[in-house]
Each structure stands twice: as structure tokens, then as C-alpha cells.
Structure of Ferredoxin:
Amino acid sequence: MKFVVNLDLCESYGICAFTTPDQFELRDDGQLVFRDEAESEYVSPDLDPDAARGAQTAADACPLQAIRMVS
């Protein structure tokens, strides 16, 4: 499993960083660090089962549904 963040939808509310801080981190300016690596979509590396559960929690909590899980 991997997670995908649609950076065009993301408005950096930071809920993902609060629910799953080991996978989602905010820069000092409040933007996700993934913006340094991708322009419109960030795809994570393969996740182990525990990390996938954490990412799913973040996806469920995202008010804009900017995070989704993929196989």
C-alpha cells in the first residue's frame, strides 16, 4: 500500500500531521514537506501494514479528501 497526496486539493490544514506525524510533516511555513518533492501529486514509498493504517487514518481525517490509499 501507498498513499497519494493531491497537492492541488491540499490546503495545508495539517490534520494529517497531527494524526500521523511520523508520515506527514509540515514545514516552518505550514506547508507539507511533500511540496518540496512534488508539484501536484506526491506518492509515498510502499508502506508496511502499521504505516498503512496510520496513513488511512490521515486520509479519513483530511477534510478535503486530498489523501487516498493505493495498492
Remarks:
- The chain has a mean pLDDT of 95.
- The longest strand covers residues 2-6.
